């Protein structure tokens, strides 16, 4: 398999990001700041070689991708495979809400057991990781030798980061994943390699402090 270059990008900011609310697979749009981040990201991507664009089908990723797709004259391929992890009954709730309404489930989730599945149709971290890796490998085979922009979610990027560095699925996230930041990886027969991570110079003044 020829080497495939991926520029992985987390969607722009939403109001739920600011509220620290579990979005999961709920369709939450970008806020005004997120739309500005998407425009900045587009300005950055036009300086790159991008052969194709792949995007989660949720609205926050679609809105993030739109300015870059127009600037690069690309038609994004929307896919459910690149969606955020499903968090079941936690979706739509803040941490404070969860502690009050679902203290037992929150305590179990906070252990970061990769096989724990929250009630309400959630994915365990292990199942989520398998989904992301399958999507990553399928994309790399289908577009071998090309450079792709992939507009996705923070949880997806966490799974890619863990895979590339051989990190455990147990435990909290260990990497920064800024909204609209660029994360470059290479996929080849030898595996997955991180080229650069959390490049947010183009949106640094637009990132939330919370």
H-E order? EHHEHEHHHEHEE
Largest sheet: 6 strands, mixed
pLDDT averaged residue by residue:
95
The total count of helices amounts to: 7
- The amount of helix comes to 25-40%
Number of strands: 6
Major sheet: arrangement of strands = 3-2-4-1-5-6
Q: Determine the oligomeric state from the structure.
A: single chain
Structural class assignment: alpha/beta
| Backbone shape | globular
Stretches where pLDDT falls below 50 for ≥5 residues? Answer: none
Radius of gyration: 17 Å
Please report which band the strand proportion falls in: under 5%, 5-15%, 15-25%, 25-35%, 35-45% or over 45%: 15-25%
**Head-to-tail CA distance between termini:** 42 Å
How would you summarize what this structure contains?
By secondary structure, this protein is of the alpha/beta class. It is built from seven helices and six strands, in the order E-H-H-E-H-E-H-H-H-E-H-E-E.
Structure description:
37% of the residues lie in helices and 18% in strands. With 210 residues, it is an alpha/beta fold. α3 (59-72) links the parallel β2 (52-56) and β3 (77-79). The longest helix is centred in the middle third of the chain and has 18 residues, at 125-142. The model has no long low-confidence stretch (mean pLDDT 95).
Sequence-ordered SSE layout with sheet pairings:
Elements: E1 4-10, H1 15-19, H2 32-45, E2 52-56, H3 59-72, E3 77-79, H4 95-101, H5 103-109, H6 125-142, E4 147-152, H7 154-165, E5 182-188, E6 191-199
Parallel strand pairs: 1-4, 2-3, 2-4
Antiparallel strand pairs: 1-5, 5-6
List the keywords:
210 residues, alpha/beta, six-stranded mixed β-sheet, 6 strands, globular
């Amino acid at each position: 398999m020829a080497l495939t270059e991926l520029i992985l990008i987390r969607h722009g900011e939403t109001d739920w990001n600011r509220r620290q609310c579990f979005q999961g697979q709920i369709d939450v749009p970008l806020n005004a700041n997120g739309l500005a981040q998407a425009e900045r990201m587009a300005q950055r991507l036009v300086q790159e070689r991008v052969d194709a664009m792949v995007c989660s089908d949720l609205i926050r990723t679609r809105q993030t991708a739109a300015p870059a797709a127009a600037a690069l004259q690309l038609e994004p391929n929307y896919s459910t495979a690149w969606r955020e992890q499903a968090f079941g009954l936690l979706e739509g709730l803040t941490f404070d809400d969860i502690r009050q309404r679902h203290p037992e489930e929150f305590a179990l989730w906070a252990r970061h057991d990769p096989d724990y599945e929250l009630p309400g149709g959630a994915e365990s971290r292990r199942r989520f990781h398998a989904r992301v890796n399958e999507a990553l490998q399928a994309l790399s085979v289908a577009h071998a030798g090309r450079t792709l922009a992939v507009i996705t979610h923070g949880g997806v990027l966490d799974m890619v980061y863990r895979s590339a560095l051989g990190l455990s699925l147990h435990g909290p996230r260990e990497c920064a994943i800024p909204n609209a930041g660029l994360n470059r990886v290479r996929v080849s027969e030898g595996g997955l390699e991180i080229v650069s991570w959390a490049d947010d110079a183009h949106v640094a003044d637009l990132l939330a402090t919370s």
